[in-house]
Amino acid sequence: MEENKTVTQAAPKKRNPVFIIILSVLVLGGSAFGFTKYQHGLHHEETEDAQVSADISLVIPRISGYVTEIKVRDNQQVKKGDTLVILDNRDYQLKLEEAQAALLTAQSNRNSARAATQAARANIATSQASVGTISAQIEAASINVWRATQDYERYANLIKDHSITQQQYEQALAAKQTAEKQLAIIEEQKKQASQQTNAVSVQSTATSSQIGVADATIRQREVDIDAAKLNLSYTVITAPQDGLVSKVNIQPGQFLQGGQALFSVVHSENVWVVANFKETQLNKMKTGQKVIVKADAYSGHAFQAVLSSFSPATGSTFALLPPDNASGNFVKVVQRLPVKIEFTDLNDPLVKKLRPGMNVLVDVHLD
User: Which of 10, 79, 168, 230 qualifies as a cystine partner to 164, CB 3.0-4.6 A?
Assistant: First the structure.
């Protein structure tokens, strides 16, 4: 009994050599993988928080109106300037015709003001000529008054010593009084002519001012016509750029408000990648570094790209509700900075198949 027990204790359990081999392979493989990842990490920075981006333009009507015709369908390729939607233009056509009629009225008013101004200027010239004629008559009448006065004074001295008859004296007095009355009449005529000239001058100034107002009105009506033509042109909504149309969510007969977003046009040939790297990954990154991009949609294909630029702020800064650490408990969170990556091989046919929002893996070569 004791011999059997001794034999049992002395016989050790043999280990399976297959387990040792597998364990060794796993340890070596894990070490090799860890060493490879470590070496890769020294020269590369990667992130899966990256998406494809592109220029996306909203199609927005500038004016309100009812849809009469839709020229595009979902996912259609369009060129810049292609007609997308046509609005009912009858109201805007009437406004254009109204503005044109108002311009004709303003032009007629200006022509009338010009005719009145020309007539007033002609009246001024006539009045001035009349004043000149009357002034000459005043000079002649003044001479007659002077002569009659001189004759009267001589006859008044002669009548005292009865050198002349009473009739001659009365004739001289009558001639003097007649000349003075004629001079007074002519001076009154000159005064009236001068007043008429002044009145015509005021009228001419007023009509000239009316011409200025009419010119300003005409300019305003021309602006109204330009605005009406512009609004009329807005009834045809065109593509803002080349690209693909998104889902068209409008129907004929629908009323559109000015500024209402209808659908989008995605620039299909100008795409790039926005990668959100942790702030701890940015130490060795700089613009111009080579980047390999792998898209989930085309696994196994490596897109050639280059690091183009860094965002001026982290993504959380541009959030609708940015974090405020000034109050409450503060928990440090590693922030991410958007980095723009542009494709360099534009002849790659798969680049044109990338669509905004697709997930990609970004590998930045730090060397």
Answer: 168
Structure-derived torsion over alpha carbons of residues 326, 330, 336, 338, reported in degrees to the nearest 10: -10
Find the Cα–Cα–Cα–Cα dihedral 12, 13, 17, 23, rounded to 10°.
-110
Closest CA to 227 of 83, 99, 62, 107: 99
Both structure tokens of 335: 């922030």
Radius of gyration of the chain (CA): 52
- The phi, psi pair for 288, rounded to 5°, reads 95, -10
pLDDT digits (tens, 9 = 90+) for 244-283: 999 999 999 999 999 999 999 998 778 999 999 999 999 9
Distance CA 124, CA 116 (A): 12
Write down the domain spans for the chain: 59-88+235-256, 91-231
Q: Does domain 59-88+235-256 have CATH number 3.40.30.10?
A: no
| Global pTM value | 0.63
69: nearest Cα among 87, 50, 89: 87
Q: Would you identify the CATH topology of the domain 91-231?
A: Helix Hairpins (1.10.287)
Higher pLDDT, 309 or 111: 309
